[in-house]
Amino acid sequence: MTRRRLPRSFYARAAHEVAPDLLGQVLVRIFPDGARASVRIIEVEAYGPDDPASHAFRGETPRNTVMFGPPGHLYVYFTYGMHHCMNVVTGGTAEGSAVLLRAAEPLEGEEEMVLRRGREGPLDLCSGPGRLAQALAVDRRDDGLDLVAGDGLWLEATPRPETIAVGTRVGVHETTRRWRYWLDGSPFVSRGRPGPPTAKRRIPRARSMTP
User: Fold this and answer.
1) pLDDT for 2
2) Which domain holds residue 20?
3) N or C terminus of the chain with fewer C-beta within 10 Å?
4) pLDDT tens for residues 163-181?
5) Reported pTM
6) How many CB atoms are closer than 10 A to CB 23?
């Protein structure tokens, strides 16, 4: 199946607008050895300007500089001394916003992902931000990759399911921003620490969803 890449305009919106539109989209990875894998995005979290939970809250640093660059690039950070996490940069240049990719469903190249994860079983391969990055062999060397014009990692457009679940972000204490989104009922959702009760709703597709 031939799909079109998501255009730059898709990412050039507020993080909490881009985040639900990422659900159901296909992330394609071409490994350094030429092997290919793809996953369907199942769960995401938005981080915007003036957001105490965001890495960009205290301004630009050598670690987070990609967040302040143009939208449609990959921001990768290392956490807890052991995990890499992937984020899609959103908004405008110098804004400092991104969407964390929390979980995905393997579609192709499962053998490649098993090799990199050291685990078998599709439910365990990409159900968490650290697992997802490891399965796709993404680390700090991939920080800044262009998701629109690059050839190592990109997102392809697919029809998005209408019903999603909305809740508070994992590990974030403030509850005013319900900026965690996931596909309702999917078994691939990460097993993060439970928050307040979630809501289920239909979110109209933005016009910029169409490449």
Assistant:
1) 72
2) 8-160
3) N
4) 899 999 998 877 778 999 9
5) 0.88
6) 21
